[in-house]
Amino acid sequence: MIDGIEIIDGHMHIFTSKLTERVKARVKEKGPEYEKAFGTWQEGFRRKYNTGFSEENDDPLEKIATDWCAELDRCGLDKALFIGLYPEEDELTDFIAAGKGRFTGFCTVDPLDPRAPELLRKRVKEEGYAGLKLYPPTQCFLPSDRAVYPLYEEAEALSIPIMFHLGITLSYDTDLRYADPLELHPVLRDFPEVNIIVPHFGSGYFRELLFLAYHVNNLYVDTSGTNVWVKYLPYQLELSEVFVRALDIFGPERIIFGTDSRMLTRGYREGILKDQLGILRESGLKSEELSLIMAGNISRLTGI
Ligand SMILES: [Zn+2]
């Protein structure tokens, strides 16, 4: 709680040594040419943005969970939602279980794998996941592809939300041809009962999200990350202005707070929490509206 307001971070990850190994193995699998190009890209990215993609954390998952709980306590957070990065990521399940009720999770699957609906059902029913995360620009699929509809049908049957990362992203495999949120329009229309979250205000495709919001009522945005995308627009746009537009069009019922915190060694991204809370406090929201953004909406969607 911060000043009596419950805070749930609706967008976090865990980075572990196992995850780093998994990334390395995936790169190796693709052959020496890919490996070389990936290395060059990674180095360039690190230099340009001073950010890493992994961290070496060999601690047992129970310790990582305890440490994250302490970090949440330090920053005044109540709970957090952790999002999976790979379909085979079983360690996230154990990590969430070790969070003693303070964590929930979104799993991910390969949307074009015919077994994806079955895996999703298992993750939700047996392992307690509260939602699904899909990543069109790195998984290279179009959300409107009918081949993915059985997965949406399963999400609908399970009454879980789906998060679609669209727009620019931190990955060598990104293909921006799959990044356009307008691709979601048929899905939003055909599955009006499925709540769809697009993180980071659409990572550059904010305008498209606003247009979609004109047509549908089941689209949400999350506020997470550095929102560095505003720098890549051909005009000046401050994050505070993004919030004003989002509040006007989506309303406080369809905005979800998050930071995209991921590296324990760097700690919880408290600066993002403070900045966004500051912007929201100055926006003239009623306290119950602020509470929806900071915790109520993600709690309603996931049951956390
Ligand atoms: Zn993320």
Protein traits:
304 residues; 2 domains; alpha/beta; TIM Barrel; binds zinc ion
What does this structure look like?
With about 300 residues, this protein is α/β, with parallel strands linked by helices. The chain has two domains: about 10-15 and about 60-300, Metal-dependent hydrolases (TIM Barrel), CATH 3.20.20; about 15-55. It is built from twelve helices and eight strands. The protein has helices spanning about 15-30, 30-50, 60-75, 90-95, 115-125, 135-140, 150-160, 185-190, 205-215, 240-250, 270-280, 285-300, and strands at about 10, 80-85, 105-110, 130-135, 160-165, 195-200, 220, 255. It has an eight-stranded parallel sheet with strand order 1-2-3-4-5-6-7-8, sandwiched between helices. Helix 5 (about 115-125) links the parallel strand 3 (about 105-110) and strand 4. The protein is globular. The structure holds zinc ion. Zinc ion (ZN) binds next to loops.
- In terms of DSSP E residues, the strand content is 5-15%
| Unreliable residue runs | none
Q: What is the CATH class name of the largest domain?
A: Alpha Beta
Termini gap:
15 Å
Main β-sheet description? 8 strands, parallel
Using the alpha-carbon principal axes, give the shape.
Answer: globular
Question: How many structural units, i.e. domains?
Answer: 2
